[in-house]
Each structure stands twice: as C-alpha cells, then as structure tokens.
Amino acid sequence: MTQSEEAALVAWSAMAAPADEAAGALVASIGAAEALEWVRWGARSLPAAAASLYGRCTREVAEAAVLAHERWERRLDVADEPHSRRATAIGARVVTRGAPGWPSALSSLGAAEPFALYVRGSADLDAAWSQGVAIVGARSSTAYGSHMAAELASGIAAAGRAVLSGGAYGIDAAAHRSALAAEAPTVAVMAGGVDRLYPAGNDALLQAVMNVGAIVSEVPPGFAPHRSRFLTRNRLIAAASATIVVEAALRSGALSTARHAAGLLRPIGAVPGPATSPSSAGCHALIRDGIAILVTRVDDVLELVDSSTEWAERNVGEVERLGERGREGVARPSFDSPADRAVYDVTSSRAITVERVAERAGLAWIDATTAAGRLEMQGLIERSKGGWKRAR
Amino acid sequence: MTQSEEAALVAWSAMAAPADEAAGALVASIGAAEALEWVRWGARSLPAAAASLYGRCTREVAEAAVLAHERWERRLDVADEPHSRRATAIGARVVTRGAPGWPSALSSLGAAEPFALYVRGSADLDAAWSQGVAIVGARSSTAYGSHMAAELASGIAAAGRAVLSGGAYGIDAAAHRSALAAEAPTVAVMAGGVDRLYPAGNDALLQAVMNVGAIVSEVPPGFAPHRSRFLTRNRLIAAASATIVVEAALRSGALSTARHAAGLLRPIGAVPGPATSPSSAGCHALIRDGIAILVTRVDDVLELVDSSTEWAERNVGEVERLGERGREGVARPSFDSPADRAVYDVTSSRAITVERVAERAGLAWIDATTAAGRLEMQGLIERSKGGWKRAR
C-alpha cells in the first residue's frame, strides 16, 4: 500500500460517517486516494467529476457516490486535518484497512468495513477479532448479570481468546474487568475517538484495558461519541467470532449488536435470567425468536464459537426472517437506505430540526430531508415544532 | 360398549402395568373382553390359546401377547377384584376407554392409552386434556419457581383452560393452588390409586382439587404409587394440549414428562431462570436443545397452545434426534423394549434382587431377567450382591 493510499484511508475515516456504504463501495472500486481526489474534483465541478466516474466503477456505485458527494464535500476540511499526527501525539497507532495487523474478520462488513482503526494498546487485533468473543449487555446490569459477564469472560480468557466489548458501564465493564483479572487481552471498541475514555467513570478501567489489550475506534481522536456512532460502532463488536448477550432489556443497545452479528451470520449466545427480570427480557426474546442460543456457562460459549460455520448455514433462514418477524423491542424498523437508518437513529421523542438531524446523522440537508420524508410515510417519525421526532 | 367390555377394561387396568403396549395392542385388536378371556384360556393351555390368536390379530401383536402372557396370568386374581365397586365406595367414578367423558386426547398414546381412569371430582376430563395445559416441575422448587408456576397457572385458568399437574410438592402444588384460587378446574394425575392422596402433606390441597376439578389415576384404588407408575403417569400429563416445565434440575422427573410430550408432538414450553440456578438447568437444557420454547408469561403459553399443529410438524425432526443427542441429564438411555425401560426405572444405586425387579416392574421373572441382561450389556446396570443396580 502506498503512503498516499494510507493517508487517503485516514482522510476517509474522518470524512465519511462510519458505515457509509457509498464511501466504502467507492473506495473499494477505485482506491482511497483516487476516491478522495474525485471528491475534491467534484467540489470544483460535480458534473464533470460525475461523468468521469462512469466506466471506473459500477453504475450503482457511481450513482451512490454522486448522491453522497455533498455530504463528503462538506467534510473535506475535516478530512484534511492531521489525524495520524494527532493519534501519534496521544500514543495511538493508526492501522489502515488491509495494512499489517488489520483484523481480517472486519471484511465481512463489506462496504461498511472501516477505513482505519485508531488503536491504543498492543493487542493483536487480527487474533482478537478472528478468535475473540464479544460480551455485550445492559449498562444498568444487575449483580446477577455482572456475575455472569465476569464468569463467561474469565472462561473465554482462560481459553486463550480475547474478550471484546464496548467499554460501557454494567455488562461491558464486568467483562473487561474479568478478562483483565485473568491477565488476558481485552479490546474495548469505542464510539468516539480513543483520546476520550468514555464514559469518564470507566477511566481507570479503560486505562487498564489499554495496558493489557487495546482501545480501538474507527473515528479519529477528537471525534465525539454521538449516538449514531454507538450504533455503527456495534457492528465492529459484532464482527467478533461470536457475540454473547448478557442481560439486555427489550430496548437495550446490546440487541443492536446481536442484530448486527445475526446479519454477519456470526453465532450469538444469550444468557437467560429470571422470567420476572426486565433486564433479561431482551435475552429471552433473542432465544425465543431463534436468533440466539441459550448459554449458561463458558463451555456453551466455546461450543458456539466452534460451530460458527454450521451456524452461518443454519441461520441464513433466520436472518432472512429478521426483518419481518421478531417481538416488540427486538424487531427494529427495516430501513430502505443507510440515510433512513441514520436519520431514525438521531431522532427521539423530543423534536429536532432538520438541520440538526443532518448534522448529527452526517448527511447533506437534502438527504436528511428526503430520508425524513420516507420515514414519515412509514409512520416511524412525525413532524413536530418545525422539526422531527419519533412517532409514538 | 357392552357392560362386559367395560368390566373387562377395568380388569385390564388392574392386570396390565400402565403403558403395557402388548396389552394395549391386544385389546385394540380383539377387544378387552375377548383379550381377557384369552388370558384365562392361556392360563389353562398357552399353546392352544397362542395358536388361536394367529389370524385374529397381526403376528406382532400375537407374539407380544404370548410373550406377555405369564405376567398377565400372574395378575389374573388382581384383575378379578371388585375395582369398580371399590371406586364407588370411595366416591370415585370409573371412565373406561372410549366411554362418554373419556379424554379423546389420550388416544395419541396409541397402544399405551390407558384402559380406564378412576376419577374423583366432576371436571370435564375431555375438555381438560384437549384444551388444558400441563404445568410440571421440581418438587424442591425455589420461591421464584413457585411464583412462576402460580403466575402461569393463573393466566391459563383465566383463559378458561384447565391446569393439569401431578399433585406433588413444589411446582405441581403451586400450579394447582393458583388454579384453585382462580376457581378454575385443575386436574391432578396420580401415580397410585385415587384413594391415596399422595403425598400426604398435600392432603388438603388434593381435597380442594377434588372439589373443584378432579383427581385422576389409571390404576384402581388401593394401588400404591410405585416409582415406575410415576414415570408412566407422566405420559398422561404429557397428553395435555401443551406442557410447561417450570424449574427442573437436570435429573428432574419433569423432564420425563417433557420427553413424553415431545414424543406425542405436543408443544413444550420451559421457563428460564438464572444460569446459576441448578433448579433451572433442566429447563435451560430443554430450550437449548430445541425441545422446548422459552416462555416467560402466559401469552407465550397461549401462543404455544395455539401453535400445536404447526409445532407437531416442526418437531418431527427434533423428536427423531431425541434418542441420539441431548445433554447429560436430559439424554436418557434409549431402550430396546418397554421391559428394558421398566427394569431400568426400578433400579437405583442400591442393589435390588431380580424378584423385586420383576415385581416392581410388573414383569414376569424371565422377562425381567432378559431385560436386565440386555441393560447390563449396554452398561446401564450392573450385578451387585446377587441383584442389580444402576451402573455408575
């Protein structure tokens, strides 16, 4: 890989929102450096740049790139900032897509594969992703949930596998902490830049993770952990060799990780709990709907990891049904485009202006407006106070 | 049905051990009265009686009857006792197979369908079995398990369905009690005669069940609740429209009921609990192995009942695998014959003479010996102190 290609991947990691599939497809087609040049050209003359693209990639990729151009152009200045230097300054290394040390397991993300990872800590990321197990769950875990997360993480560590999680309170913290106690590498995948140890209350824990394992992010240092970045971050965790959900309420973010893992045909385990515990309702729904296998001990987890090929075959049917069926809370609207998903993710029960929607979702104003219109037709969001909010 | 046919069914209910499929097949082929006459004839001259059978039923049925004759003949005197009169004397009614009020759902038991039911209480048994739900589980339940049993039973009762169980301590008692509290019919299926309110500690509860629902047994009054009768009794409970397992350790008898229900292609639900609770380990194994659906609330149970046809189709494959796979504790040896199973069931870790084995299993001495030989070859039981005990 040329130095300019590496530099361009870094620029793309800052310019495109995580999981921007139009960007991923363009870079895969013509290379990061040429794609970046194309964005600059388009900023001077989009019609000429657009015309130049046909023939160099498929019609779909070209069309998506032209539509996405406005949102990339708006962030060209951000792309040009010295992200690698900043990373080095805080003791982080930058691993670009395909470079030595790049986790090959991330290629299952297809066009949503990150352009670069910013890493603090010396863990072998390729091994962590290809053999490691993600443990995810509620921030507001019960003592039982934390116990189970620690128990499973300890067994996974003893089996020589890395424990991946999101560095959050509750289940995430219990899993990281237990792996650290076993002196085993653990990887915390952050939604914001690796300069921000988020949440602040986990500062000491994340420092320790850094010393033994690694803290990883696909966005450059300085980037804030926006809500939409948490949801796209979850796909990185879900790319581990298996995902275990330990305690999740019906609307827990951990279920988004499980859905991503299902989409990647990775084996998913869920830990049962009392039927009376709302903290286990999401796990029960995953098991009941056939998305996750019930796991109660580390042997179950290791069996799951070993079954990953078989699982992928078995679960193709399940995954196809994921969009349609599923119980309230597990079912998530299926979106016509990444823009629709991004807009939906930044809306809440409080109204927000379309400008703010565009900004938070990392979309051009016109894309945000169009997406909002589609979501309104589907009854997912509604107009309120000159802006948008989630439909009741 | 003629009076003598009814009387003969009563005699068979006393003479043959529950689930004696050779008896069931013979009675189904030539009628209870003729089959009884045939046993008497065989007692005088087995070769002549045996010869007479060929042509009146299939070769298999005839051969099984000839092999079984000795064990039936030994119990002809028991068959001749006045069971109906004794039942009436204690306020019980006798419903013979196929008579008005007979639960048609029991016909799915095939050759193991009981010959008669002894009933105390006025519940509509046909409705109870065809629409009712069995709730079974550990005798040594936790407070959580009892709560869940009560919660589900109460919802089943509110849906106008009977709650069936086994009248034991723990989960059974919680289920019956909750149905009673809802003033809904509940049915306790006993392993011994209905004159014995077993266990004695549930005397008051079983009296109440009798007043609102019914206490039912397939063996005549006076018969003791032997261990093998508990296991055969479980198939009657499993013939309900669905079976829900609430808390069961890995070796719980409730798993035998679940296995019977699986064999009858009835929907099975299991309530999850903490992964750390041995009382929920059997439920988790049933869910994990795909034998049961995870249920946490009464809506899940009612959905399961409504799905019974679909379930039966879906589960044919699962049931075929039941013999081979399954985890330790859920997996049960597969037996070559009902005699093998009966012998295995009456053995334990303490040695027992072959005479006692034959008596408890309701088998002829030669059949018990032969079965024990087969079980020894399979490594399931072993010789000890001139008798047999379970292999370690």
TrEMBL record, chains A, B:
One of its GO terms (biological process) is DNA-mediated transformation. It comes from the Bacteria. Residues 94-305 form the Smf/DprA SLOG domain. Coiled coil: none annotated. NCBIfam families: dprA. Belongs to the DprA/Smf family. This is DNA processing protein.
